[in-house]
Amino acid sequence: MTIKTLITPEWWLLAPLPIAFVLLAIEFIFRMRRLCLGERGPRAEAVSTG
Question: What is the full per-residue pLDDT of the chain (50 aa) written as tens digits?
Fold first, then answer.
């Protein structure tokens, strides 16, 4: 018979997920805003020849 000596609640493992997804959404919004407000045309880092 195996007895667990260290028991952690499952919500401790799942608690960072909503925080991480909110931070990811904020980063996505900032990047999309920067793309919308930037100048139109090919970006220098996106051009492989030149």
Answer: 556 677 778 888 889 999 999 999 999 999 999 989 988 877 777 666 65
In sign, the C-alpha dihedral spanning 35, 38, 44, 47 is: positive
Locate 15 and state its tokens: 């608690």
Interatomic CA distance for residues 33 and 39, integer angstroms: 12
Could you tell me how far CA 17 lies from the centroid of its own chain?
10
